[in-house]
Amino acid sequence: MATQFFTYKGIPFPCLEYSPETLDYVDRQFQVQDDDIFNITYPKSGTNWMLEILSLIRCDGDPSWVRSVLNLRRAPWIETNRGLQNALRYPPPRLLSSHLPIQLFPRSFQSSQAKVIYTLRSPKDVLVSLYHFSQALHLYKDPGPMDAFLQDFLSGNLHYGSWFDHVAGWLGLRGQKNFFYITYEELQQDLQGSVVRICHFLGKKLSEEQISSVVKNASFQTMRENQMSNGSQIPDEYMDHQKGQFLRKGVSGDWKNLLSEEQSHRITTMSCERLHGLGIDFPWD
Ligand code: A3P
């Protein structure tokens, strides 16, 4: 069962759950509040991991308060039809999610003090994670052979457009005091230190014990065993659970098992061309 796509301002979106009217509303009319916190990523960059961390931080590390991935009221996706309705009903302070590239993000954000946490990941691992996930999630296009999928990735012909544009666009905000970015790789290397940095950005004070609880409950193993966060409750209408898992491997460098040297080189070349100007030393090959 493959979904149909439409293009909005040059970016492909699946017809299931998305519409030009919703995207237009989000861009022009959605009112960002000063106390909003946004969890923003390109798909497969660690969105749900960060959501778990932010939800745990919000409830002082108490996992019993932490929610189902299906509970859209926990951190609704502002750009989906249903997510927008939930976001509009969400009592402040809101925790919101989005995969939107910056040019489609609500324009009211610019004059607000809302906080954005942007998580990014090695493009090669994003590609591989997306490749596997696309085989299971009906919202995405069937990936077909890797070479064709890579071509779509490089040209931005995928749900939410180009990874390179997404990253360059959002990282253009670095230095702004309501913008914080972190990599999936940093979360992996030092989850505790990352949680401390995120708390600092949010102005949230947690005890050492509470931080340890965030770290423990946001670990891959705990999330994978937790029915509320492992995606097992996603209805069959959206996902073929025989074909893929929401929490698949949770490692860095898995691209080495799937991409040829030539394919890897094409991504490296485009990364250098498109992101070199940012002057950031990314923690991946
Ligand atoms: P893999 O497919 O490489 O395993 P998103 O939430 O943006 O869809 O990202 C999904 C990716 O994040 C998957 O990568 C998933 O396994 C990984 N992930 C989710 N929770 C994680 C955790 N606690 N630790 C490490 N990786 C995690």
UniProtKB/TrEMBL annotation:
Primary location recorded for the protein, binned into one broad class: cytoplasm
Keyword line: Cytoplasm, Transferase
Family recorded in the similarity comment: Belongs to the sulfotransferase 1 family.
Keyword Transferase: yes
One Gene Ontology molecular-function label: sulfotransferase activity
Annotated Sulfotransferase domain residues: 34-278
Annotated organism of origin: Alligator sinensis (Chinese alligator)
The protein's name in its UniProt record: Sulfotransferase
Enzyme class: transferase
Location(s) in or outside the cell: Cytoplasm
Catalytic activity, EC: 2.8.2.-
GO CC annotations, alphabetized: cytoplasm
Pfam families recorded: Sulfotransfer_1
Record has Transferase as a keyword: yes
